[in-house]
Write a structure and sequence with these properties.
The complex is a heterodimer of chains A (699) and B (344).
Chain A (H helix, E strand, L loop, with lengths): L1 E3 H4 L9 H10 L4 E7 L2 E6 L11 H12 L12 E5 L5 E4 L7 E8 L8 H9 L7 H13 L4 E4 L7 E6 L5 E3 L5 E3 L5 E4 L4 E4 L3 E2 L12 E7 L2 H11 L4 H8 L6 H15 L3 E4 L2 E4 L8 E3 L1 H8 L5 H10 L3 E4 L14 E4 L10 H12 L17 E2 L1 H15 L3 E2 L5 E2 L1 H6 L5 E2 L10 E2 L4 H13 L5 E11 L14 E11 L10 H4 L3 H14 L5 E5 L7 E11 L2 E9 L1 H6 L6 E7 H4 L18 E10 L4 H12 L3 E10 L8 E10 L8 H16 L5 E3 L1
Parallel strand pairs in A: 4-15, 5-8, 21-25
Antiparallel strand pairs in A: 1-3, 2-3, 6-14, 6-15, 6-16, 7-14, 8-11, 9-10, 11-12, 12-13, 17-19, 18-19, 22-24, 23-24, 25-26, 26-30, 27-28, 28-29, 29-30, 31-33, 31-34, 32-33
Helix pairs in contact in A: 4-5, 5-8, 6-7, 9-11, 10-11, 12-16, 19-20
Chain B lengths: L6 H17 L3 H12 L4 H7 L9 H37 L18 H15 L3 E3 L4 E3 H4 L24 E3 L4 H10 L4 E10 L11 E11 L4 H15 L6 E5 L5 E10 L16 E10 L1 H6 L8 E8 H9 L6 H4 L2 H6 L1
Parallel strand pairs in B: 1-4
Antiparallel strand pairs in B: 2-3, 4-5, 5-9, 6-7, 7-8, 8-9
Helix pairs in contact in B: 1-2, 1-4, 2-4, 5-10
Classes of the chains: A alpha+beta (699), B alpha+beta (344).
Chain lengths: 699, 344
C-alpha cells in the first residue's frame, strides 16, 4: 500500500519525525518497505499482511497512526446537495445471490461531464500507483484509495433497462472486460448483469460494454460488499488480480459502502458538475449484529508473559475502534481485574474473530519489544535426534572424510531425464518450467548434470555425493500404498570424474578415478555403517546409463540395493564429460535396518601372524572374486586377511590370462602358529585353487 | 742396530701423530693414520717392542709414558673421528636438500553441503534446548499442508505459497511447518520438536528465490507457554547461531497458524545496525517468522488450547546460510559448482 504523507495528514496529525514514524509503524506491524519522494511529498510504501485489508486505504493507515501516536482520527464527512428524482425512480437493483453479495448499494449521478480530474487529485492517484483516466473513473479509484471501498461506475445509458442484477454467470457466458480481454465464465462466478447480459465481473473488473466514455452523462455507481472466498476463487480461476479483487478477497468493511457513496457523490459534484440523485439503493442481507468476543485479561497476561494493565488493554481496544463492556460470567467473586470483558470489534476489522486476535492487538499496541525475554518454565525435556538423521550424518561424514563434496540438486528434473532412468515417474501437474516437471526417480540424472556443469566450467576433477530422496509413483512394497501417496526413498548417489589425488608428479594412473576407486568408496562406507553380507555382481541387464562391461549391481540378501559403474560412453559424450566418469547409487532405505552406528572395540591379537603369498594365473573370463572365495573357503578360520596385491597381464603371462598375487595373513588367537601349521593351510589353499578350472598356480 | 728409545722419541711421535690426525680430512685417511700408529705394526706397537733397549731401571717409567702416549693418541683419533663423522653426515644431508618452496600435495578435503551444515547447526542448538529433532515427508496432503494450519482453500495467505501439485490431493510441502502437524497428531504435550528439510514453492528462480529451498520449523507445547518464552528461546538461538552480541527485534506479522504472530530481525551482521546495502539501510535483517500457535491448530490436533499453549517458528535455512556466509545468490546452493561448495 502506497501512502502519500500529505494525504495521510488529512486524517491524522503526524507530529513525529519521519524516521520515528517509520520505526513506530514497523512496531505495530506496518513495515515501510520503501520511501519515495515525489515533488514535495513523501510516499510510504507499506507492506501489508493478508489479514489487514482495513489498512488498504489512506484512512485505514491513518487509523493505525492515530492509535500509535495517541491522536484523534479525522473521518471525512462529505457534504453535497442531492436532486430529485430519487435514484430508485431511474434504476433498479436485484440481488439473486445474497450469499455471494451480502450488500449492494447503487447511486445515480446525472449531467456528468467527463473530463480530466483536478491536477492535485491526479497527482495523488499517481503517487499511489494508479493511473488517472478520467474524472469519473478517477473518483472511484480515489475513494477506494482513501476509504478502502472499491467502487465501479457504469455508463447508465448502456445498461439495458437501467437494471442491475447480481447473479451467478450462465454456463459459458462471455464477458469482455475493461482491459479488452474476453473471458468465458461459469456458474461458480458472480457477475453484475443488466437485463440482458453480464456487464461486470463482480468485485473484480468491469465490462467494456458499459465502460465510461467521453460521451457518458449518466453514471450508475456501485459500491458493494462481496463474499471474500467467492471473489478469491473467481480471481484465481481466471488469473486476474485487480486493486478491487485484492481488497474484496481479503474482506472489506460491510458497513463501508454508504460512506464511499457519499464521498463519491461529493466528488462528482466537485469534479464533474454532476447532479446526484436523491437516495441510495441499498440491497442488504447483512444483519447489523457485531459479534462479541469474550476477553479475559488474565488470559492476555498468561499468553503474552507480561502484565499489561487492564486499563491499558481497554484503552488499546477502544482506540482500535472496538466497543468494550463488562463480560458475562467470569468469576463474580474474584478480583475486578479477573473479570472478563466483552469486546465487539469494528466492522472493518474482519480479522478479529477470537480472543487470541484481541491478544495480538493488545500486544501490538503495547509493543512486542516491551514483552520480556524468558525461558520456558516447564520441565526440562531431553533433546533427541531421530535415528535416521543420525545415520544421514554418519553417511555424510564418512564420505566427506573420503574426500567427497556434498552436492544438492533440485529434486525437480525434466520429464525426459526422469523417463530415461527407466523407473516410473511422479509428474508435477503445474510445473513452472519444463526442465522441472518431474520428481527425480533417481539421483543419477542430477549427478551427471553436476559433473557436466563443472566440466563446462573447466573443473575436471569432481568427486561428489548426494544424499536425498527419490520419488516413485506407487510404493514398491505393500505398506500404505492405498492412499495414493507417492513413495519417497532415501537414496545415496556418488559421482567421480578426473583425478581424486592431485599434486605435481602424481602419476595419472595413481591419481585418476576408476571403477575400483568408486567400489572402494562404497566398501568403506558400508563397512563404516556396519552393513555386511552384501555382494557385487556384474550388471546383467542392459541400461542406457551404464558402460556394459564396467558396471555392477549391489545385492543385499539377494535383493538389488544399488548400482555402480562407469557412465556409458554415449551418456558421457552427450554431457561432454572430459574424462571417464563413475557413478554409484545406493537405496539407503533398504539397508537402514542393518546399520549400526556404535562400533565396538576389536580384540587386538596377542600372538604373531604368519604371512604367505600365493599367485595364480587365471583366464580373463574367470572373476577374481571367485578365486578369493576359494582361498577363503580353503584357508579356514585361521585366515585373518587375504589381500590382493598385484594384478598383472602381459608377457610372460599368456594373452587372455592374468596373474593375481594374494597375500594371506594367518593367525591363531591362542598360540603362535608354527611354520608347519601355516604350510599345511597354504597347501590346502593350493590344492583348492588347482581344483578350479583354468586356474594355474605360480611358484 | 737398534737405537735406544728415549723420552724425546716419544715426544716426537706424539707431535707427528697430532699433526697427521689434524691433516686427516676423511674418515678413511684418519683410519690410515690410526693403523700407522696404533695398528699391529704401528709406531706405538714398535715402540713397545723397543722397550727392551731401555735400561731396566727406567723401564717402568718409560712403559707408563708409552701407555700414556698410546691412550693420548687413541683419544685424539676418536675425537677426530667424531668430528669427521659429523662432517660427513652433514655433507650427506646437505646433498639431500630439496626446494621447500615447491607446493605441497594437499589431501583432498571433502565437505558436506553448506545447507546441511547450517541445518545441523540449527538442530544442535535446539537439541540443546530440549527439542526433539524429527523429519517428515516432502510430499504432503493439501489438507495437512494448508487446512490443518488454518489456511482453507482460497485463503489469501495461500498466495504467498503457490504450490506444486503431483495429484489433486498431494503436493510438495510448502513449509516444514506441516511436520509440526504430524508431531502434534502423534504425541501428547508437553512436546518440543524441530523439523527441517526441502520445501517447494512455485517461485521462479532468481537471486533470492528458488523453487526448492530449505526450512527449519520448531514448536513447543506445554501448560503456560508464553509469548515471552518464544522471544527468549529465539534470542538464545540467534545468539548461538550468529553472535553472542547480536540484538534481536520482534514486530507484528501474520501467519494463519499463529496468533499473535511475529517476525524476528537481528541487528545487521554487516554493519552492526548502522545501516548498509545488505539491510537496506534499516540496520535490521529479518530472519524468521514465529508466533503462538493459533488455537484452531491445537484444536484440530485435539489439544485443548485452554489447557495448553504453544509457540512455533519457521526459519529460512537458505537465508540464514546466505547471511552468515555472505552468499548473494540462493541459486549457488543448487548449482553444484564444486569451487563454491569446497569454499563455503
Amino acid at each position: 500500500m502506497r501512502v502519500p504523507l500529505e494525504w495521510l495528514r488529512e486524517f491524522v496529525t503526524v507530529d513525529v519525525p519521519l524516521e520515528t514514524l517509520i520505526e513506530r509503524l514497523h512496531g505495530i506491524g506496518l513495515p515501510v518497505e520503501r520511501i519515495e519522494h515525489i515533488g514535495d511529498d513523501t510516499v510510504l510504501e507499506i507492506e501489508l499482511t493478508a489479514n489487514r485489508p482495513d489498512c488498504m486505504s489512506v484512512l485505514g493507515v491513518a487509523r493505525e497512526v492515530a492509535v500509535m501516536l495517541g491522536h484523534r482520527l479525522r473521518i471525512p464527512k462529505p457534504k453535497y446537495v442531492t436532486r430529485s428524482p430519487a435514484a430508485s425512480e431511474r434504476i433498479a437493483v436485484e440481488v439473486d445471490d445474497p450469499n455471494g453479495c451480502p450488500r449492494f448499494t447503487a447511486r445515480m449521478i446525472e449531467d456528468v461531464r467527463v473530463g480530466p480530474s483536478p491536477a492535485w487529485a491526479q497527482r495523488r492517484l499517481e503517487a499511489c500507483g494508479v493511473r488517472a483516466i478520467n474524472n469519473v473513473v478517477d473518483i472511484t479509484n480515489y475513494v477506494m484509495l482513501e476509504l478502502g471501498q472499491p467502487m465501479h461506475a457504469f455508463d447508465d445509458d448502456r445498461v439495458a433497462e437501467h437494471r442491475l442484477v447480481v447473479r451467478r454467470a450462465e454456463p459459458g457466458e462471455r464477458l469482455r472486460t475493461l482491459d479488452g480481454v474476453d473471458y468465458t465464465l461459469d456458474p461458480e462466478m458472480l457477475v453484475v448483469a443488466d437485463a440482458r447480459r453480464a456487464v461486470s465481473l463482480a468485485g473484480i473488473i468491469g465490462g467494456s460494454d458499459t465502460e465510461i466514455g467521453p460521451g457518458t452523462t449518466r453514471v450508475l455507481l456501485e459500491a458493494a460488499y462481496w463474499n471474500p472466498p467467492a471473489i478469491g476463487r473467481t480471481a484465481r480461476r481466471l488469473g486476474i488480480r485487480t486493486e478491487a479483487s485484492a481488497r474484496f478477497e481479503r474482506g472489506m468493511d460491510p458497513a463501508g459502502p454508504p460512506l464511499a457513496q457519499e464521498r463519491a457523490a461529493q466528488l462528482f459534484t466537485e469534479w464533474c458538475g454532476g447532479r446526484v440523485l436523491r437516495g441510495t439503493i441499498d440491497v442488504s442481507a447483512l444483519r447489523a449484529i457485531r459479534r462479541a468476543i469474550r476477553l479475559r485479561p488474565a488470559r492476555v497476561v498468561t499468553v503474552l508473559g507480561v502484565a499489561v494493565p487492564r486499563a491499558q488493554m481497554l484503552r488499546s481496544l477502544r482506540a482500535l475502534g472496538c466497543t468494550v463492556g463488562p463480560g458475562r460470567g467470569g468469576s463474580p467473586d474474584g478480583h475486578p481485574r479477573a473479570r472478563s470483558l466483552e469486546v465487539r470489534p469494528p466492522s472493518f476489522r474482519v480479522d478479529l474473530l477470537r480472543e487470541e486476535d484481541l491478544i495480538e492487538e493488545i500486544a501490538r499496541v503495547y509493543g512486542y519489544d516491551r514483552v520480556p525475554l524468558t525461558m520456558p518454565r516447564g520441565e526440562t525435556t531431553p533433546g533427541t535426534i531421530a535415528p535416521v538423521l543420525r545415520i544421514d550424518a554418519r553417511v555424510r561424514e564418512t564420505l566427506a572424510r573420503c574426500g567427497l563434496t556434498e552436492v544438492m540438486s533440485l529434486t525437480l528434473i525434466s520429464a525426459q531425464a526422469a523417463a530415461k532412468t527407466g523407473a516410473g515417474v511422479v509428474v508435477v501437474q503445474n510445473p513452472l518450467v519444463a526442465e522441472q516437471s518431474a520428481l527425480r526417480p533417481s539421483l543419477l540424472p542430477g549427478l551427471v548434470s553436476a559433473l557436466a556443469t563443472n566440466a563446462a566450467r573447466r573443473v575436471d576433477d569432481v568427486q561428489v555425493f548426494e544424499l536425498g530422496r527419490v520419488f516413485h509413483p506407487t510404493p514398491r512394497e505393500g505398506n500404505g500404498g492405498l492412499d495414493g501417496r507417492p513413495e519417497e526413498r532415501r537414496t545415496l548417489g556418488l559421482a567421480s570424474m578426473g583425478r581424486w589425488r592431485a599434486g605435481w608428479n602424481v602419476p595419472i594412473e595413481q591419481g585418476a578415478t576408476d571403477f575400483y576407486h568408486m567400489k572402494g568408496l562404497i566398501e568403506v562406507l558400508l563397512r563404516e555403517l556396519g552393513v555386511r553380507d552384501w555382494v557385487m555382481d556384474p550388471l546383467s541387464e542392459a541400461s542406457a546409463w551404464w558402460h556394459p562391461g564396467r558396471s555392477a549391481v549391489m545385492k543385499y540378501h539377494g535383493r538389488a540395493i544399488g548400482q555402480l559403474g562407469e557412465v556409458h560412453p554415449d551418456v558421457a559424450a552427450a554431457h561432454r564429460l572430459p574424462h571417464r566418469a563413475y557413478l554409484a547409487e545406493v537405496d539407503l532405505e533398504a539397508v537402514l535396518p542393518a546399520v549400526t552406528l556404535i562400533r565396538t572395540s576389536p580384540e587386538l591379537p596377542r600372538f604373531p601372524s604368519v604371512e604367505r603369498d600365493v599367485a595364480v594365473v587365471i583366464p580373463d573370463g574367470l572373476p577374481a572374486g571367485q578365486v578369493e572365495a576359494v582361498i577363503r573357503a580353503a584357508a579356514g578360520p585361521l585366515l585373518e586377511m587375504v589381500e590382493l596385491f598385484d594384478v598383472y597381464a602381459g608377457p610372460p603371462v599368456r594373452a587372455g590370462y592374468r596373474n593375481l598375487a594374494y597375500r594371506l595373513r594367518l593367525r591363531a588367537q591362542d598360540r603362535t602358529l608354527t611354520a608347519d601349521e601355516a604350510e599345511e593351510i597354504l597347501q590346502q589353499v593350493r590344492i583348492a585353487l588347482q581344483g578350479q578350472a583354468g586356474v594355474r598356480l605360480r611358484e | 742396530m737398534v737405537s735406544q728409545l728415549d723420552r724425546s722419541d716419544l715426544e716426537s711421535i706424539r707431535r707427528r701423530a697430532e699433526g697427521e690426525c689434524v691433516e686427516a680430512t676423511t674418515v678413511e685417511s684418519l683410519e690410515g693414520m690410526r693403523v700407522r700408529y696404533l695398528g699391529r705394526n704401528g709406531v706405538i706397537t714398535q715402540a713397545f717392542r723397543q722397550l727392551g733397549t731401555v735400561p731396566p731401571g727406567d723401564r717402568p717409567a718409560m712403559g707408563a709414558a708409552l701407555n700414556e702416549l698410546k691412550a693420548g693418541i687413541e683419544r685424539l683419533v676418536e675425537a677426530r673421528a667424531v668430528v669427521l663423522r659429523e662432517e660427513a653426515q652433514h655433507r650427506r644431508v646437505a646433498a639431500e636438500a630439496i626446494d621447500v618452496t615447491l607446493p605441497g600435495r594437499p589431501p583432498t578435503l571433502g565437505r558436506t553441503h553448506i545447507l546441511t551444515r547450517t541445518m545441523d547447526e540449527i538442530a544442535q542448538i535446539f537439541l540443546g534446548l530440549g527439542f526433539e529433532v524429527v523429519e517428515g515427508p516432502e510430499i504432503e496432503r493439501d489438507h495437512d499442508n494448508f487446512e490443518r494450519l488454518n489456511m482453507p482453500a482460497y485463503h489469501p495467505a495461500r498466495d504467498a505459497q503457490d504450490s506444486f501439485y503431483v495429484t489433486n490431493e498431494w503436493l510438495l510441502r510448502t513449509h516444514t511447518t506441516v511436520v509440526d502437524v504430524h508431531v502434534l497428531d502423534s504425541r501428547r504435550p508437553p512436546m518440543r520438536a524441530l523439523a527441517y528439510g526441502h520445501c517447494y514453492r512455485r517461485d521462479p528462480a532468481d537471486a533470492s528465490h528458488s523453487p526448492m529451498f530449505h526450512q527449519a520449523d520448531g514448536f513447543m507445547v506445554d501448560e503456560g507457554v508464553r509469548f515471552s518464552d518464544l522471544k527468549g528461546v529465539l534470542m538464545a538461538f540467534a545468539r548461538e547461531f550468529f553472535d553472542p552480541q547480536i540484538r534481536v527485534r520482534f514486530a507484528p506479522s501474520y501467519f494463519p497458524f499463529t496468533e499473535p504472530s511475529a517476525e524476528m530481525a537481528i541487528s545487521c551482521l554487516m554493519c552492526g545496525g548502522r545501516g548498509c546495502a545488505v539491510c537496506k539501510h534499516s540496520g535490521w535483517l529479518e530472519i524468521l517468522g514465529c508466533g503462538m500457535f493459533h488455537p484452531r491448530v491445537l484444536e484440530m490436533a485435539h489439544i485443548d488450547p485452554e489447557q495448553h499453549t504453544a509457540f512455533a517458528f519457521g526459519i529460512g535455512v537458505d537465508r540464514l546460510a546466505m547471511l552468515k556466509h555472505r552468499i548473494n545468490d540462493i541459486r549457488l546452493f543448487y548449482d553444484n559448482d564444486v569451487r563454491f561448495l569446497r569454499q563455503v
